[in-house]
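Repro:
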Amino acid sequence: MADQAPDAPALGSVRTAERHAAGQAPGVAPVAGQAPATASAVPDRATLRLALVVGGLVLAVLLGFGLGRINGGGEPTAASGTGSALAEHPHAPGAGAHSHGADQDAAAEAGGLAVSRDGYTLTPLADEFTLGQAGELRFQIRDGQRRTVTRFAVVHDKPMHVIVVRRDLSGYQHLHPTMAVDGTWSVPLTLPSPGVWRAYADFTAVADDGRQTATTLGVDLVAPGDYTPRDLPGPATTTRVDEFTVEYRGAPQPGLTVPVDFRITGADGVGPTLERYLGAYGHLVALRQGDLGYLHVHPEAELVDGAIRFWLTTPAPGRYRLYLDFATGGAVRTAEFTVSVS
């Protein structure tokens, strides 16, 4: 998810100092009041002493100039730890909005817009489903040599996360497929309403050399039938899921990373005992209306004043749909919000 000043070449500075030294006249000016025609070939003591003092001063100045240029090195260089600090990108609880460095711009880009990205391709084995009937989503991840990838890192407790949503942002499903030995992933899937659906594969692939690449790929699925898109609900700060009320607080801004909090209360007005889901107290997916760009959202490991906190970076103005998965009483529920970013 750093600007560095260019290094000044040290050798160039040394050569500059050497050129100044080479242009210095090797002789010493004659002492005032002495006629050159009558000057002795052997200088007197006063002349010799003066010559030695002047020569020493000139040598000291030249050496000091050269050493200063070498040690200074021109423009200052950035500290070597800058890149790693930006990569770790810690968020202190309660911190406000902040911008990313240049090397973090890619982290703010929406993913899932293509079947191929970052050297990997999402290859579904079938993309059409019978409306309302239980089916199975099967796919492979292939590398740049068309080889099926079989090594994945475990992220948020799972090696593969699959999000399925209709293109009007309704019907959200969060699935976790299993992989066969040949690298084929499969998971039961039912598309309950007709239309074009978007399936996202969110994973971190591990190459033969151990290098890890985190990416999100997307592909369209089809459930044939008469399709009537649903209007996206307007922005709201609260919603109900079963007997729970979920409150949203946040003010996303383009290009900034901001905290967004979710507070859950039961019918009695008391917060339930939240259980960890996928390694945290909640899991958040953000999708952009229009192109269905997928945003990675990073959670805090612990509750913040009883609320589930995430850090959201929206790359551009628009309307976004947020899907919060949380667990309580052994069941996972999903609360949905529409957020306008301007």
